[in-house]
Amino acid sequence: MRKGRVPYQLVEVLSCPGGCLSGRGQAESETGGRVDKALVQQMEEVYGSLPVRLPELNPILNTLYQDWLQGQESPQASKLLHTEFRGQSQIHTQPPHMEW
């Protein structure tokens, strides 16, 4: 990334099993690493001003479901687009040297 050879601007790595909440995607001040309340307020105003569009009215999304996923309720759509919460006790990929 530093050499400009890839198109990415941000790569987020979740080091906790199952990912971490309140990670690097937070609105922090440039100095001190604390939440910047003014920035959060500005972001809420911008996001609140965006128009709400229902996904079921999007023709491209409907084409995706019909042509690639065999319908919205298909096993293929459920497998590829749905997930479920797993508590930390259910995740067994933790290396033995890590304690959470």
Write up what this structure looks like:
This protein is mostly helical and 100 residues long. It is built from 3 helices and no strands. The two termini are 31 Å apart.
Question: Secondary structure elements and their pairing?
Answer:
Blueprint: H1 37-49, H2 59-68, H3 75-81
Give a short overview.
Helices cover 30% and strands 0% of the residues. With 100 residues, the protein is an all-alpha fold. The two termini are 31 Å apart.
Percent in helix: 25-40%
Number of helices: 3
Count of individual beta strands: 0
Rg value: 20 Å
Structural class: mainly alpha
* Element pattern in H and E: HHH
Shape: extended
The description of the largest β-sheet is: none
**Percent in strands:** under 5%
User: What value does the average pLDDT take?
Assistant: 76
Unreliable residue runs: none
CA-to-CA gap between the ends?
A: 31 Å
Domain Iron hydrogenase small subunit: 33-89
Organism: Ataeniobius toweri
Protein name: Iron hydrogenase small subunit domain-containing protein
